[in-house]
Amino acid sequence: MTRRDILLAALRNETVEQIPWVPFVGCHGAYLQGVTATEYFNSTELLVKGAHLAYEKYAPFGLPAFFDLQVEAEALGCEVEYADENPPSVKSHPLADCRDVTKMRVPSPADGRLPIVLPAISEIARTLGDKIGIYGLVTGPFTLALHLRGTNIFYDMIDDPEYVHELMSFCAEVGQRVSAMYIEAGVDVIALVDPMTSQISPSDFEKFVSPYATGIFAAVRSLDTLSSFFVCGNAKNNIEAMCQCQPDNVSIDENIPLEYVKDICNRHGISFGGNIKLTLSILFGTTTDCIRDAMNCMHIGGNTGFILAPGCDLPFDSPEENLKAIAAVVEGNVTDLHSEDDVLEGVDVEVPDYANERQVIVDVITLDSASCAPCQYMVEAVARNVARFDDKVIFREHKIKNKESVVLMKKLGVNNIPTTVIDGVVRFVSLIPDEQRLAAELQNAIDQKSR
């Protein structure tokens, strides 16, 4: 069996001779070439070269053709902001003020950056597709709805659910069309990536997401293509509902215990993937850290229906030696481990004396709001609300791509990202705060300081 054969068998929830591993190379493909992420995501040639370099270096069983959840949004009229070391992020929402979904049009292959990514997919599939599985990443309907409408959608879900269904129906239509484009270009797997679903309850997921995600997976299945449902953040309560949407695979990050996902997916006959730690292992860790993490995941996952992977796209400057160490574990080429220093040893952060600070301090712990959609929308919601209180409240984002932020996260007792902490007390975990509730929390904190 080729590596591609093994991956596809595992995705079909079959027992395989070797656990497949898929490093989700996104902007890291730019790092491998010494170019910026802006250059990378705007060049067919660089996207293709990034995939080839990842294939040569990391011995994968599969790769995404690219990892960018803004392609559909940009094709639909969202303004995006590019960065040197991150994927682009959405900065404007066409339906934020004008709610008319009928003015939106499903993108064609000529819209936005589709003329760049579609030829890249075709060339990657042509040159690597007989060796490894190629993933086509499609923005999930709820995350795409957030890109188009902004955080207003959370109020719409309460005040105007019929409008949300109209918008979700359109986003599902986009998902089906883009999936068909990617399949025609040669991908083996459609990965529906919907990170914003970690921000809603199971009842809202089943009401506003399930019908539309299920439709996309059915459309992909009708084209004889495998599918995966990607989520990041603390979406533990929605795993059951994700499985009920009938994808072939569910993929998660380290916010959710792998054992928990395995149990639920096994009951539904669905394969599962994850959940190597992006920052503590891959970005900051030693090769030994990565080896131990990979071994632990493989021990839990087993040889039936499990794909070893990080929970999201690799940070830009992920050390190559760490990824090569994971590949060596998969190949069975690691025979012993040696003790190394704690990656956070010597890194210290002074936690404010919140009770005696003049201002209320709001700390938002994120992966990086420039590259993580749930983090971006939580930061935007908090910053917008904090601004209403002038100098009485200060707001700080702590990106755990920095070691100091990881240490602060541990000291504050934060276990999931994104999380909002007010004066040292965890308040909103993997949940974009309701504007009225957040305002009340902030006012209460201000009142306590004035007593």
Helices, by number, come to: 19
What is the strand content? 5-15%
Alpha carbon gap, first and last residue: 71 Å
> What overall form do the CA principal axes indicate?
globular
Largest sheet, order of strands side by side?
A: 1-4-5-6-7-8-9
Can you identify the CATH class of the largest domain? Alpha Beta
What is the count of distinct domains? 2
Biggest pleated sheet: 7 strands, parallel
Q: Give the uncertain stretches in residue-range form.
A: none
Query: Which CATH architecture of the largest domain?
Result: Alpha-Beta Barrel
Rg, nearest Å: 21 Å
Helix content: 40-55%
The beta-strand count equals 13
- Category from helices, strands and their pairing: alpha/beta
Mean pLDDT metric? 92
In the CATH scheme, what's the topology name of the largest domain?
TIM Barrel
Which secondary structure elements does this structure contain, and how are they paired or packed?
Elements: H1 3-11, H2 28-31, H3 37-41, H4 44-58, E1 62-64, H5 71-75, E2 80-81, E3 89-90, H6 114-128, E4 133-139, H7 141-149, H8 152-159, H9 161-185, E5 189-193, H10 202-208, H11 210-222, E6 226-230, H12 239-244, E7 249-251, H13 258-268, E8 271-276, H14 278-283, H15 287-301, E9 306-310, H16 320-331, E10 360-366, H17 373-386, E11 393-399, H18 403-411, E12 419-422, E13 425-429, H19 435-450
Parallel strand pairs: 1-4, 4-5, 5-6, 6-7, 7-8, 8-9, 10-11
Antiparallel strand pairs: 2-3, 10-12, 12-13
Helix pairs in contact: 4-6, 7-9, 8-9, 9-11, 15-16, 17-19
